[in-house]
Amino acid sequence: xxxxxxREQAQRLFDLSQRLLDDGGSVEAVxxxxxxxxCLRGSVEGRFNLASVLIDAAGQLPRARYARxxxxxxxxxxxxxxxxxxxxxxxxLGNAYSVIGRRERGKGPGTKPSLLTAISHLDxxxxxxxxxxxxxxLARALLMQGRWIESHDQFNAVVDEHPDHHQALALRGSSLxxxxxxxxxxxxxxxxxxxxxxxxESLAAGDQLSCRSYRSVxxxxxxxxxxxxxxxxxxxxxxxxxxxxxxxxxxxxxxxxVESPGAFDLYPLAARIEGGSRRPPVEAAIxxxxxxxxxxxxSRWILYKAMCSLPEEGDHVISLRVHPDSVHDLGVGLIMSxxxxxxxxxxxxxxxLNSYFRLGHDPKYVTFETVWYDAGSKRKGAPKDRSQIxxxxxxxxxxxxxxxxxxxxxxxxGRGHYEQLRTLRNRIEHHVVVASPTASDEHRFVALSxxxxxxxxxxxxxxxKAAVWYFGAAVFxxxxxxxxxxxxxxCRIHPGSGLSVERS
Length: 504
Description:
Blueprint: H1 4-22, H2 26-39, H3 44-60, H4 64-76, H5 86-102, H6 113-128, H7 134-144, H8 148-161, H9 166-180, H10 188-203, H11 208-223, H12 238-245, H13 254-259, H14 282-308, H15 330-356, H16 391-394, H17 399-413, H18 417-429, E1 433-435, E2 446-448, H19 450-488
Parallel strand pairs: 1-2
Helix pairs in contact: 1-2, 1-3, 2-3, 3-4, 3-5, 4-5, 5-6, 5-7, 6-7, 7-8, 8-9, 9-10, 10-11, 14-15, 14-19, 15-18, 15-19, 17-18, 17-19
């Protein structure tokens, strides 16, 4: 047993370690934390606190060795961990894998796997408890993995709750700059990034290091001819306002949200370049992306009608009360239909990948998880290793293609919201979900409140939106590379506006 005096001494050392961390003395902080663990004779609490100090120190230096030691310590005490520390446990693991992921190299699908693990743990921690920096760190990990759309949504959530969070503002601007690289030059995204960095600089007046970083980005954007200005607001229709407020618009540009709310469905192929010979033809490539966008807009419209209007009940609606106070109205049915529709969009994205990149899969058996394998493979689930990924996809190190693969892996192995949404969709497909204000002990069905179903539908919609963006951006980047190769061969390229792009 550890004496009371030893516990008090250990607590003093941990407190000193935390103060040293706050002052930037990472190495000294780790030394004090190790002394504290010796006072506690290797208890679970002591090792947990030491792991936290090691991971925080690794983030400051950064020093991956500290992060790996922290991961080993946490995994060694996982079985003995008290329930009240579970959220902090996954938060610390997520931060540790983020540090490790920063040092991983590579482009394209299957690279930087530690960041994928970090995202899984940080997202899971948010389902257990809203820890102060968990969402920011999750968004930062998504940003490092090039998943700009998902990181932008997370930073928006942080800024909505904490408008003065200068780091979230600046990083949201960084995500807009990343999205700009996937489009055909939509400068409104850069204007939004500039305004975010300028506001972050004004809020971080006492943080000289952050201010220098923000000013550097501001100067670069201004040299590129980007200027900040106050957008002129125009009236939105109810559906436009709802789509923008819920983060379900394919156009993330904050300027368009104010000046041109009708442009909420801008996507990477909204303007394109034609030229040279190709398979499939340009019109077919555009139609592949249009089909995915139409499906997304359809599910989004169903959800809008369920959440923003009151569908009238018809005589054909039969309510069988399998649970006390269960709700079987048309609105609940529309919400569940939207969840299934958004999820089915992932399969359509996989079908689009197979068609556009000519992967050779039998269309009848293409799924979002298995499309990444070579044609004819009998393996199930998304590939775990880069060597298992289809050779045509590995040869294309497009950031958007990597982001789409990472999204598939998150739904396959991820904890937190990714796992919950996939499970919910499967239960809806098997007709075992009912809406009810009270919990149920029944094993025949799962009872969820209407608010829980609405929240899940919005989260699933944002994941589907990310899939549309990543797929469209991969096609757009491949088109640019194709034209570049044609130009090198001496082919004559004819830039043109092309056919008008359908928007649903």
